[in-house]
Write a structure and sequence with these properties.
The chain is 49% helix and 16% strand. The chain is an alpha/beta fold.
């Protein structure tokens, strides 16, 4: 397993002992479920100072798996992570650029690409080759937009390796990929096509990938659609944990009769500002809901080293103040905005929502839409963007919305808050059943089966 972030990160406790803590990021969280079902070596970046010490020790045995941490040059990693992966590829693959004014690819981008993204991918590839030499029969599963170049490097050195790559974010149409410099977009597509199979969450993303490969490179590879699931057993355990129950008590104490919840990172792709405006439109159109409904927005501060993310966080805080100043009073704050990384609080909010708002501009999947219904205790309704990958699976039972249409989102919020008990329960039970049937284990097994099939075909030719 190869990803930028690993499932754990290391630190020292008050007594100086090394401790492993849950890793950050949605991908690492989602992939933790595979550790109980497979013999895994996980290759990831060293994130903390203690991680770098672990990296010097070659590998660590943690929670039943082997963790190989790669310590990158800090300057190269900043260029890789902030300059290219999140400052460029994330924006491109979520259609976040307004092309009249951005992007500009000058000397700074070229430095970030050559001396950052390429260098870090080379470091990952070296680690993969070393692990393949230790265990030649292992399948290699690359993950996400951080590692588009690594598969081609590994393929060049170990031609017979079984390689797969799963892209967890949207794959945009070829015209949008054409914004990148020609050699960059070619290297990305050729890097991915060095895999035996490339996986996506939805048919839409897979189809776009095939079109852009035809446009920008001569290489081809097998593709698959396998929507990622979550680990229901983990959330069944969490819902009754002491930490979650403590957070839930605080939410229950403060909540109004009706509660709209959103749980997100402070990312421009998550569409938080428009969500606040939709909530304001709900209050404006339905004054009878005054003081009866509130929105709890639990937001994890994300990528503040990237200027656009810092600016978007400021816009989020500004919009929340506008709603509260316009509609709030001494005894009512319509939007309860909390910015912190507090997973037990998020699970507690999952249990208490009457409506869950998930309205990203574009999203490869969005696991919040799958996690929250597993623990919700109020037959809550999910308002879900049509551009979230999860909509392909859950759209039948969610209230689908155009994420750019504020009035439509306000109408969906109202429909969810006023929906009859029987219909709410039907939808909630259907989502819960689907998520439980299509969990993380099934997703992992499907990927490995695809890799076995396509790698065997290629090696036999």
């Amino acid at each position: 397993m190869v990803s930028n972030r690993g499932p754990v990160t290391f630190a020292r406790d008050a007594r100086g002992n090394r401790v492993a803590r849950r890793g950050g990021g949605g991908l690492a969280t989602a992939l933790r479920g595979l550790l109980a079902h497979h013999d895994v070596t996980w290759i990831a970046s060293a994130m903390s100072e203690e991680d770098r010490r672990v990296a010097e020790e070659d590998a660590a045995a943690v929670e039943g798996f082997r963790l190989r941490l790669v310590a990158h040059d800090p300057v190269a990693y900043d260029r890789f992570y902030n300059g290219v992966a999140n400052g460029t590829l994330w924006f491109l693959q979520h259609y976040l650029w307004g092309l009249a004014t951005e992007p500009d690819f000058g000397a700074g981008f070229r430095t970030a690409w050559n001396d950052g993204y390429a260098v870090v991918n080379e470091g990952f590839a070296r680690a993969v080759v070393e692990e393949l030499d230790r265990e030649p029969g292992a399948a290699v599963c690359f993950h996400d937009y951080h590692l588009y170049l690594a598969p081609a490097i590994v393929r060049g050195q170990r031609p017979g390796a079984a390689l797969s790559h799963f892209v967890h974010i949207p794959w945009v149409q070829s015209d949008y990929w054409g914004v990148l410099p020609a050699d960059v977009r070619r290297d990305i597509h050729e890097g991915l096509c060095a895999n035996d199979v490339v996986g996506f969450h939805t048919e839409r993303w897979r189809r776009n990938f095939l079109e852009s490969c035809a446009a920008f490179c001569d290489a081809r590879t097998a593709t698959a659609v396998n929507p990622i699931g979550v680990d229901p057993a983990e959330f069944d355990r969490l819902r009754g944990s002491a930490a979650v129950l403590e957070e839930e008590a605080h939410i229950v104490e403060r909540r109004r009769e009706l509660l709209v919840v959103r749980v997100d990172r402070t990312d421009p792709a998550k569409n938080i500002v428009r969500g606040f405006r939709a909530f304001a439109a709900l209050l404006e159109g339905h004054p009878e809901l005054e003081r009866r409904v509130s929105m709890l927005a639990l937001l994890d501060p994300s990528r503040q080293e990237v200027a656009q993310y810092a600016e978007y966080l400021a816009a989020i805080e500004h919009e929340a103040r506008i709603v509260n100043d316009r509609f709030g009073g001494a005894d009512w704050e319509p939007v309860d905005l909390q910015i912190s990384d507090n997973f037990p609080q998020a699970v507690a909010a999952y249990k208490q929502y009457d409506v869950l708002l998930v309205n990203p501009i574009y999203d490869g999947m969005n696991l919040v839409a799958k996690e929250a219904p597993l623990v919700n205790e109020r037959d809550g309704v999910v308002v879900l963007s049509e551009n979230a990958g999860a909509y392909d699976e859950l759209g039948e039972w969610a209230l689908g919305v155009n994420p750019f249409d504020i009035e439509a989102q306000a109408r969906a919020l109202y429909e969810g808050l006023t929906m009859g008990v029987a219909e709410r329960r039907r939808r909630a039970e259907a989502i819960d059943g689907h998520v439980r049937r299509c969990g993380i284990e099934a997703w992992i097994d499907a990927q490995l089966a695809d890799l076995d099939r396509h790698a065997s075909t290629i090696l036999s030719q």
